[in-house]
């Protein structure tokens, strides 16, 4: 059969046999809307065992006992349809990747195999083929199976179906908590769960039984093939630099350690300048990486930049002020000392208390470049604790968490920092000229307060080092999802225009 593999043959059979079967569905006419229906979610272990006793327990790769036992199985059939009255084009999927538009989640279950079981239009096969990006994976926690679905154009009433065989990966949970969920965003509309208007036909049950056997066959063929290993490396790596980026770094390192035995991370994230100083003083080493909010200054010629992501920042104020929006010009005037009382911008009669990051902070550099035109009056260092019970109107802090505390403690205070951490700290974030902080707003530049996050090494990193492996991990696969979970967009994303992440010095 040449290059025509058994796995490919099984996949083609799984698509060809059910493609002619379809159900008449009630169409809910509304605005642009992509609906999904869970038409079947049923356990299959008992049925298979009754016909072939013991087969699921023993069906595993021949090489040792490394393969998972086929038990606690279930079969899920999900119909994905255009349930509105407007066609959905590929460009209507608001997803961060070029090809993937939707994510089908199965909480507490992993996906053993899947197949496209029905196409309302044969032309849809071009959007759901082997090169479309359709794939199976698990989320960062390892307890949610995910099928990534491509950006399929759907005219009104058109649909396709996904049949998946699942295995329980985490015990417990209610039926509602285990229910499959389709996640994604549609321009000018939304993704909604819709109700099926018909029962499961006998033909569909026959097709399901057939497809269960096909998918089990695919699983066995795939299990017998050698797995593709994660690009892991062992050793110890110390991560220093930006305090604003610390939560992202810690989460990514924790996920890396789960997947790669022998990797150990230490953290000393006390600000960009301190991190870059420590890296420069250490000399060429593969055991130290520094993270910087924005590009390094000219005083570190040996440090090599690696752009990571477009990072989102926010301005926030003391909760008692009642201020919800400031223009970029007002923020600039506040930090340049032209606005000194909140009544000048529609707030209470209260002096403005400026909270700033200490000189050398990468977050401060991004703030000045994004909102102050790169300029800010020179001010002497003042401790925020020292001015708490005085009439002081300015102080600076060394790290992000101190910024949050100072703005919370000092009436009339205004500060700034990384957006996702400000949100977690429940800071009173203001919109800038009516635009709220958001990843898409930063991507399209309608929101001005963003910057590029960089990782720096002293010289070139050895190819097999933990540092090189971890930086590659941060920009690909699971690591990129960690960046997005914290409101960043990886520089490698198709949504970021070329050259945007290039270092400027």
From TrEMBL:
The chain crosses the membrane at residues 6-30, 203-224. The keyword Membrane applies. Pfam families: PBP_like_2. Gene3D superfamilies: Periplasmic binding protein-like II. Residues 230-476 form the PBP domain. InterPro entries: PBP_domain (IPR024370), Phosphate_ABC_transporter (IPR050811). Keywords: Membrane, Signal, Transmembrane, Transmembrane helix. It comes from the Bacteria. Signal peptide: none annotated. This is PstS family phosphate ABC transporter substrate-binding protein. It comes from Nocardia xishanensis.
